Amino acid sequence: MSPSRYLGTKALQIAKWIGFLIIYLFASATLEVAGDYVHNEFLSRHILGVALVVTAAALALIAWRYGKQLDADNPRRFGKSKLTRQKIAQFVLIFVLMVAFQMLWSYLISKHILAIPDNQKAVEADQLRLPVWNAIFSVILAPIFEELIFRGIFMNYFFNKDNRLNNILAIVISGLLFGYAHELQFNVNWLMYSGLGCFLSYTYMHFRDIRYSIGLHFLNNFVSMI
């Protein structure tokens, strides 16, 4: 492939990836709009209905695109893998390490060494307005969206050769982008979010099955809420 054609392909892939991210953000924004009108039950209910339709359509589109990617080009052979005791033990170990990382982060915040991230403040504010639907979105839907976008589609578009260098770059850069999506400043909280992203990226790369990173993301968000 010529350099100009390669650059054109990558530019198109970047544009598509950003497009999927925008679709996800738009879907989550519709739920926030419903929360803004929580004191108007009629309007809030109708906006919530639209938000659910938009969210379902967005998730279906992104999941479909991920599946099409795997069908077209899948050098790492991502897909559904058989569950074994060894994989369960490995998954539990990664989860325990991730929880320990979260506990360290929470400790630093409690000691006022780090400020509460703006993303966390926004999530807590949304929980007060539409607690049930925002809990469902944060714990169940957001992990699916984010794993498909930041792990599945991202790793298939970029660094998709199955070798050590590409695998490491995929894990690290995916984690850093995940961190920046949650903390729009290059500070310590961004690094902490990026660390969580690297746990998830490693899980996806290790098991070669996105269900594991989705499950880990689900458990992390659930533990964070209780």
Largest β-sheet summary = none
Uncertain stretches of 5 or more adjacent residues:
none
The total beta strand count reads 0
Count the domains.
1
Mean pLDDT: 90
Overall structural class, as computed from helix and strand content, comes to mainly alpha
Q: Provide the gyration radius in Å.
A: 18 Å
Question: What's the SSE pattern?
Answer: HHHHHHHH
Overall geometry: globular
Distance between the termini: 51 Å
- Enumerate how many helices there are, as a single number: 8
Q: How much β-strand is present in the residues? A: under 5%
Helix proportion of residues, in percent? over 70%
Walk me through the structure.
The chain has 226 residues and is an all-alpha fold. It has one domain. It is 82% helix and 0% strand. It is built from eight helices and no strands. The longest helix has 34 residues, at 3-36. The radius of gyration is 18 Å and the shape is globular.
Write the layout of secondary structure elements.
Elements lengths: L2 H34 L4 H32 L12 H26 L7 H12 L1 H27 L6 H19 L5 H20 L2 H16 L1
GO molecular function: endopeptidase activity
Pfam families: Rce1-like
Keywords: Hydrolase, Membrane, Protease, Transmembrane, Transmembrane helix
